[in-house]
Write a structure and sequence with these properties.
Protein name: Phosphoribosyltransferase
Number of helices: 4
GO molecular function, one term: glycosyltransferase activity
Organism: Actinomadura parmotrematis
Largest sheet: 6 strands, mixed
Pfam family, one: Pribosyltran
Structural class: alpha/beta
Keywords: Glycosyltransferase, Transferase
CATH architecture: 3-Layer(aba) Sandwich
Helix content: 25-40%
């Protein structure tokens, strides 16, 4: 990975969201719902939801990153997980900020695959090493990305918690 960083500002994110939505619309894909991968995917899903006129947004919480380029061995779904009934037969657009290794997107896509009519992925950034090649990508990079929502440290720190995998 390059030592240089990709810097995404709020203004640039606004443009990225519109252009990503434009790709989805130009492809003729009309999702019934957008499934965001929290936390970074929440911003992407909201942007896509408005631009594609999709009000049905769901959230899936997945923990993988623990710090800058530090991650768990495998991504872990955190409760609550979406109900299969809510996803049954739907066209689902999975939204996330970055496809880095692809492990998180694969976990979510595979979870959806047994329940939905069609699942596609939309990300702001995709890295060359990602095992998931997303249908909709705003920009490809091999750099570490500074997102506007995580560029500064938290206002307060919470004590680390041990989670069962």
């Amino acid at each position: 990975m390059s030592t240089e960083r990709e810097v995404l500002t709020w203004e640039l994110f606004g443009r990225a969201g519109r252009e990503l939505a434009g790709q989805v619309a130009a492809d003729g894909y009309e999702p019934d719902l957008i499934l965001s991968i929290a936390r970074g995917g929440l911003f992407v899903a909201g942007s896509l939801g408005y631009a594609l006129d999709v009000k049905n947004l769901h959230v899936m919480n997945v923990e993988f990153y623990t710090g800058v380029d530090q991650r768990l061995d495998l991504p872990v779904m955190l409760p609550p997980t979406p109900s299969a009934v809510d996803l049954s037969g739907a066209r689902v657009l999975v939204a996330d900020d970055v496809a880095d290794t692809g492990a998180t997107l694969k976990l979510v896509r595979d979870f959806c695959a047994d329940h939905v009519a069609d699942v596609r992925c939309a990300v702001v950034y995709e890295k060359p090493r990602s095992t998931v090649k997303c249908e909709y990508v705003w920009k490809r990079t091999d750099r570490w990305i500074d997102f506007p929502w995580s560029a500064e440290p938290p206002v307060t720190s919470r004590a680390p918690r041990v989670r069962d995998a």
